[in-house]
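User: Fold this; tokens only.

Assistant: Input:
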Amino acid sequence: MERASEIEVGLEILLHDLITHKQYVEFLVGRDGEFDLLAASAIRRAVNQYGCGNTSLILVLPYMKAEYRDNEQSYLDYYDEVEICADSSEVHYKSAIQVRNRCMVDRSDLVVCCIQHKSGGAYKTVLYAKKQGKQVRNLADCQL
């Protein structure tokens, strides 16, 4: 990921604002790309640092994955909840991540992403989010 440290700083600022100013924040994350892992780690650190007790970190899987099934306890030790998206678990695996992403957008008030190219699944998800009238924060656009 280009500019990873800048993006991480932008994410930390955003997380501080959300955690300290919102009554409750439910963070929905995937685990299918570099930004997903960076975001989950930053969320976990921010929650520990600000300790407001007003958050939940939820991993949303597109379908039952062997890695999760074989390591369920370690996932549950890290995430507050692990969900398997019902809609995406019923479609062909090649479209499951996009279906899961749309379900996550539908549940969200704010979509945080790191889109550096106008192509791919994450870009399509952001276009969907904007069409749904969701607020989108692209950390790749941040100038720190």
